[in-house]
Every structure is written in C-alpha cells, then in structure tokens.
Amino acid sequence: MGYFNLIIGFFDGSGTSHVNTGRFYGLKDDGEKFRGQSPAEGNLKAECLSIPAVFTEEITLAQVPMARIGWITGIVASGRAYRVTYNLPAGLPAIRADRLAEALGLTNTPSTVGHMQHSKWQLLEGDLFRILFDAGLLDSAAPTVFVPVREPVNPRLVSAMMPFSREYDAVYEAIVAAAGKAGGECKRADNIWEHSTIIQDIYSLIHKSAVVVCDFSGKNPNVFYEAGIAHSLGRPVIPIVQHTADIPFDLQHHRAIVYHNNSEGLEQLKTQLAKRIETLMAL
Q1: Domain residues of the chain, as ranges?
Q2: What does pLDDT average to in each consecutive run of 10 residues of the chain (283 residues)?
Q3: Which of 173, 160, 238, 169 is nearest to 206 (CA)?
Q4: Taking the domain 157-282, which CATH number applies?
C-alpha cells in the first residue's frame, strides 16, 4: 500500500520547515508502528525521504490555504525541532486544503480542533497520487503519455529498472535473489508483454510494485526517467550503482547501495539489497 508524509502548520513554501520534535506523531491510526523512532535517522528517515509529502497550513475560520504536493529532500534534528527541506515540483498543482482533507478522510472543523486545525507531521497509509487522481484533484497533471493503471499495488512485487545489456545479467540475477530472500518476487519490463509499447509495460510494472530498484550505473537516461516515474507514483526507490558519480545531482540526497560487478561484489549486493527490501516491505 505504501505511505506518504503529511505536514500541517509548519509550511510557508520557502523550501524549509522547522517541525517541533513533539509534533511528529508517526503513523496515523497506529501509534505503535514507529514508536521510539526518529524521522531524522535510520530506516524511518530513509522512508520519509522516499515517499511523497503533502504540505499545508492549518485551515481556520478566516482562511482555507492551498496545499502543495512534493518531496522531502533532507531531515536534520536541530535542538527541539526537525529541520525539513523539501521540493515542490511546478508540475503538481496547488490544492484547496479543505478538498484535500475530504479526499484524505481528515476532519476539518475550524470552530474546534480537527485534523486540519492541528499542526503536526504524520505518515498516512495509502497511495497518495491515486487518492488525489480518484478525487479529481490532479486532473491538470493527468498523464498524457501513459494509460492510467487502476490495478492495486502488489505488496510483494519488486521491479528492477536497469540497462538491458548482457553485462548486467548477473546484476539482475542478484536483484532477483535479494527480492526472493526478502520474501518478494522481482520482475523487469523485458520479462512481460502486456501492452503494445514497452514504456506502458514499464509504467504499469512500476505502478504495481511495492519497491523499485534502480541501477544508475553508466548514467543510463532510461533508468533516470523510470526513477522519476517511480517517485511521481510515490513508490520507494532503492538506488544501486557501481560508481557514485553516476547518480544524478537531483537524487544524490538519497542513500544508494554501491556495488562491484564481480562475484564477491554481487554477493554483498544481495545481502544489502535483501535487507533494504525487507525493511521497506515491513513498513
């Protein structure tokens, strides 16, 4: 199913928010899920950086603000606050916060204190972009290249986005093995033929995946494009690469698994990748 960030009240559109540490509430409706974990470190930080985010001011009797959709790019603990940096893509429209609340099932009672009247940072469960599309809130950003996919996410499916060349065959086998070790299954677009165009198969595969592994080795532009699709759909991306210099600037804030394409290096890749896949599937 996946998650997305919701930040209410600590937002001014500047690209940086300071959220009181006591206002991070973990997962909505499941207070035990991330209890004792900090969004500024470890697996929870990696999760928050890999999923989309909703930013909005509180709704009051005097105003209904416009919410924005984007991605958190950095989280640092600073005293009694988390310093959160973020990016708001110009292609995603602003949304009235009251309509957003309705789509997300959040209470909005300006005369008292509903969800939208309480400054906080929470994680919510669900496919954010599908929720917003179904609510008609992202019509202006509807895809024109792909046919929308309505199939649910397969919680065990891992997709591999990588160059299609023989030198990466052993790498793909390592990814398949890692996914299996973590209790999942791995597919690559050249393993399926469901549509008349390869890019639609790629889009559909990413849409149905719980985790997307992207190999940036060689600076392959197709893999960069596919990583962008995964991020826009809110899918967790695990970057792997043989040389860190191959990681695009816009993605360098994400932690990547660096590997060597030899027997010893691929064994290490299996171990590291399986652990990361297992962690993401458990969230």
Answers
A1: 3-141, 157-282
A2: 91 95 93 90 92 94 92 94 91 89 92 90 92 79 66 88 94 97 93 77 92 96 93 90 91 90 97 95 75
A3: 160
A4: 3.40.50.450
